[in-house]
């Protein structure tokens, strides 16, 4: 559903990216709206995750990567930013498999608060509790805060990773196949969480699960061989796509 007076949070202009001689992104132009869930779908190897990593310059960590074009957040090109730590705090990422630190539940969240000087030391317990409540973990974990996070279920670990990110007060949440390691019940819980989070955050999710994209996103982009072949409301993408390749992918003719 479209809303009135929406604003563009992320925009790419003629974005191209190369891994050495291989071109992974080709002239990608997309506008991602604030406080919506936007899904990026497409077959394996089409450039979905590469595009996602452009939004917080995680591709900078890979050798022989060259990027041309622009990535703008709130209208500002991030390609010339010097403070990438601050960028990645503001544009946080959740990965395919949960990656909690081998520390206690409490320290998983407190660690980032200290490193980024988000609050005073005496305020850390408040922000730990607040973040765990945001992801629906406080009641379940309040009595085991100082136990290892590695003892949690996979779903709890993924929620904890999201809580760890929320504690840093980002504006944008990037998720790269966040439910790929989870069972259907855990996946449903994560989806319900994302629907709540979009009220306060801009959410971009890469997923192979087209049903998931249809369930939770308002906008959807379809990628193929490094190109964004179609970007529109999710309803339109799934009911009346403009590009025949989109229809072929959705009905399972390839991918």
Task: Give a description of the structure.
The chain has a single domain, classed as Rossmann fold, CATH 3.40.50.300. Helix 3 crosses helix 4, helix 3 packs parallel to helix 6 and helix 4 packs across helix 6. The strands form 2 sheets. It has a 6-stranded mixed sheet, sandwiched between helices. A 4-stranded antiparallel sheet has the order 2-1-4-5, covered by helices on one side. The chain is α/β, with parallel strands linked by helices and 255 residues long. The chain is built from 10 helices and 10 strands.
User: How far is the first residue's CA from the last residue's CA?
Assistant: 27 Å
Mean pLDDT: 95
* Poorly predicted sequence stretches spanning 5 or more consecutive residues: none
CATH uppermost class: Alpha Beta
The assigned CATH architecture is 3-Layer(aba) Sandwich
Q: In CATH, what is the homologous superfamily? A: P-loop containing nucleotide triphosphate hydrolases
Number of helices: 10
CATH fold-level label: Rossmann fold
The shape, in one word, is: globular
Q: Could you tell me the strand content as a percent range?
A: 25-35%
Helix content: 25-40%
- Rg measurement, Å: 18 Å
Number of domains: 1
Structural class comes to alpha/beta
Q: How can the largest sheet be summarized?
A: 6 strands, mixed
**H/E element sequence:** EEEHEEHEHHHHEHEHEEHH
- For the secondary structure, the number of strands is 10
Going across the biggest sheet, name each strand in turn: 6-7-8-3-9-10
Assembly type of the chains comes to single chain
């Amino acid at each position: 559903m479209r809303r009135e007076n929406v604003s563009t949070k992320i925009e790419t202009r003629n974005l191209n990216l190369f891994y050495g001689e291989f071109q992974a992104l080709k002239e990608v132009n997309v506008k991602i709206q604030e406080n919506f869930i936007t899904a990026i779908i497409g077959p394996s190897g089409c450039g979905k995750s590469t595009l996602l990593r452009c939004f917080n310059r995680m591709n900078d960590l890979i050798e022989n990567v060259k990027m041309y074009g622009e990535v703008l957040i709130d209208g500002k090109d991030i390609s010339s930013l010097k403070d990438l730590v601050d960028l990645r705090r503001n544009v946080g990422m959740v990965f395919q498999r949960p990656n909690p630190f081998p520390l206690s539940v409490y320290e998983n969240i407190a660690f980032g608060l200290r490193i980024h000087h988000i609050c005073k030391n005496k305020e850390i317990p408040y922000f730990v509790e607040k973040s765990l409540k945001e992801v629906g973990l406080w009641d379940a974990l309040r009595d085991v805060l100082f136990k290892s996070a590695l003892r949690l279920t996979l779903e709890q670990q993924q929620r904890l990773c999201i809580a760890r990110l929320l504690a840093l007060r980002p504006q944008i949440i990037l998720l790269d196949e966040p439910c790929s390691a989870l069972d259907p019940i855990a996946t449903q819980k994560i989806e319900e969480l994302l629907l709540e989070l979009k009220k306060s955050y801009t959410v971009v999710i890469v997923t192979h699960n087209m049903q998931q994209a249809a369930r939770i996103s308002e906008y959807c982009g379809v990628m193929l061989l490094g190109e964004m072949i179609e970007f529109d409301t999710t309803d339109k993408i799934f009911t009346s796509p403009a590009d025949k390749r989109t229809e072929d992918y959705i009905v399972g003719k390839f991918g």
